[in-house]
């Protein structure tokens, strides 16, 4: 082969092997997107990540990627809001121009080695119009479960049928159109203008329908009926090859420092004795709820590792709202940190249960380590995930009455020491085994990832 032919072959090999990724700047979205970036990089794609200044990923952990910052126009006040839906709306309007300029520049700079497509978080709904104008295909990644996405997609129908706005008296009634959901599980998001929930989710659904492909951090054995329903309602090429973090160990995408004392403390505990408690990066609670959590933990008599994120209790710095006498009562039986190395914690032999807000990342992380869950969802997709954990997969128990110390204490004991907990653990171990199989050669996630790779190269 002469040098010109060699160059041509090299170019053909490279064609379509450059990808642009655009994560939503929230921890629960950045984590799966960077895991996806790692997976695609391992498949031979080169990765450019466009990101906002707000919550920008730690580039030093990813020397193999190229990073392109854009302005997000957020003031300090905007960035510290607890109204996630308002933040999403604002980001989607502030980023249009900077994103379009950045994309147009990147596309013009690398004309001889074109980008195959843009992979964006589904929540960046504005990006579809931009890529359409620049003639670039867009594939979206949904960082939620398929079951919760279908529930979001059904919001207009549920409203038409009179389920919304939710009435307290109807909370326990079944949603006939979406079994096994109850009215209280409908994924509404708290925000200052409730109408915005329909506007924002409506845009996400619409622009999902316009995408060239869908990516899910889920796996067929977990959500088979939901994936079948999705294929009917969204007839677009769809790829589910989760759990992403199990493909191979990758650098941490944590935006906060993880307190390693979590692990040294766990090393001193008996096997499966500890309940790990974390409500993730966004969920909040009031002082009354926080106090109920504290007394529920104290009264359960089980050792616990508790992540109290600064800001978990609105208006407080960190541990000031702990009730009087709590620390003296629990002594060395409890360990509290601001942020933990969660995946390592869940894999630790001392962990026997995970009390979670039921975000999709922690749910998958718990399944992968075979750890039974206690669920107390705060908003949105968490409501649906927790219903599935309790009723469909039966790998955890949902706190049906909210944060009440009596129910908390009782549920911790059901999971950690009673026979019921052992049965839950057995089912969890079965799911964990399914995870191991789906990632192996010939498994459902393995094949779906191969499918995505071929699909991108065909664009
Ligand atoms: C949220 C939604 O709930 C989720 O369903 C959606 O798809 C994305 O936004 P969530 O899954 O709740 O995200 O993520 P979160 O629990 O906030 O955490 C994200 C990551 O932070 C996890 O992968 C977890 O391992 C890590 N984490 C969490 C830590 O490293 N330390 C902690 O103490 C807590």
Structure explained in plain terms:
InterPro entries: UDP_glucos_trans. Belongs to the UDP-glycosyltransferase family. Keywords: Glycosyltransferase, Transferase. GO terms for molecular function: glycosyltransferase activity. The chain contains 19 helices and 13 strands. It is of the alpha/beta class and 459 residues long. It folds into 2 domains: 268 residues, 3-Layer(aba) Sandwich (Rossmann fold); 176 residues, Rossmann fold (3-Layer(aba) Sandwich), CATH 3.40.50.2000. Strand 9, helix 13 and strand 10 form a beta-alpha-beta unit.
Q: How would you summarize this macromolecular structure in one to three sentences?
A:
Belongs to the UDP-glycosyltransferase family. This protein is 46% helix and 13% strand.
Observed structural traits:
459 residues; Rossmann fold; 2 domains; 7-stranded parallel sheet; 6-stranded parallel sheet; 19 helices; 13 strands; globular; binds uridine-5'-diphosphate-xylopyranose; glycosyltransferase activity
């Amino acid at each position: 082969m002469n040098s010109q032919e060699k160059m041509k072959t090299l170019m053909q090999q490279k064609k379509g092997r450059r990808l642009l990724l655009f994560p939503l700047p929230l921890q629960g979205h950045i984590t799966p997107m960077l895991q996806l970036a790692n997976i695609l990089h391992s498949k031979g794609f080169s990765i450019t990540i466009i990101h906002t200044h707000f919550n920008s990923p730690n580039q030093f952990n990813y020397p193999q990627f190229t990073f392109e910052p854009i302005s997000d126009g957020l003031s300090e006040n905007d960035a510290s809001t607890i109204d996630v839906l308002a933040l999403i709306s604002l980001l989607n309007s502030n980023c249009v121009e900077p994103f379009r300029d950045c994309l147009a520049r990147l596309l013009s700079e690398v004309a001889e080695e074109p980008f195959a497509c843009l992979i964006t978080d589904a929540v960046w709904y504005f990006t579809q119009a931009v890529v359409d104008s620049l003639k670039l295909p867009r594939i979206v990644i949904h960082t939620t479960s398929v079951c919760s996405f279908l529930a979001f997609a059904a919001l207009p129908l549920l409203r038409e049928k009179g389920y919304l706005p939710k009435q307290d008296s109807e909370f326990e009634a079944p949603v006939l159109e979406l079994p096994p959901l109850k009215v209280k599980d409908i994924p509404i998001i708290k925000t200052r203008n409730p109408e915005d929930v329909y506007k924002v989710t409506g845009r996400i659904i619409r622009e999902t329908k316009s995408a060239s492909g869908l990516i899910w951090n889920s796996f067929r054995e977990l959500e088979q009926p939901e994936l079948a329903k999705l294929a009917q309602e969204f007839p677009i090429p769809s790829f589910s090859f989760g759990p992403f973090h199990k493909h191979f160990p990758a650098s941490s995408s944590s935006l906060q420092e993880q307190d390693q004392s979590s692990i040294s403390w766990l090393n001193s505990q008996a096997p499966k004795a500890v309940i790990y408690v974390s409500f993730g990066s966004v969920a909040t609670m009031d002082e009354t709820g926080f106090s109920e959590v504290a007394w529920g933990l104290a009264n359960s008599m089980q050792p616990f590792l508790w992540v109290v994120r600064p800001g978990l209790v609105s208006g407080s710095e960190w541990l000031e709202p702990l009730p009087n006498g709590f620390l003296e009562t629990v002594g060395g039986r409890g360990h509290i940190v601001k942020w933990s190395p969660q995946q390592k914690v869940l894999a630790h032999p001392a962990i026997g249960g995970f009390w979670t807000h039921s975000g999709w990342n922690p749910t998958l992380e718990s399944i992968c380590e075979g750890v039974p869950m206690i669920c107390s969802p705060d908003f949105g997709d968490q409501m649906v995930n927790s219903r599935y954990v309790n009723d469909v997969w039966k790998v955890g128990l949902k706190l049906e009455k909210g944060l009440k110390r009596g129910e908390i204490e009782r549920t911790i004991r059901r999971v950690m020491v009673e026979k019921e907990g052992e049965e839950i653990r057995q089912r969890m171990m079965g799911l964990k085994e399914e995870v191991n199989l789906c990632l192996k050669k010939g498994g459902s996630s393995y094949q779906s990832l191969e499918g995505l790779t071929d699909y991108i190269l065909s664009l």
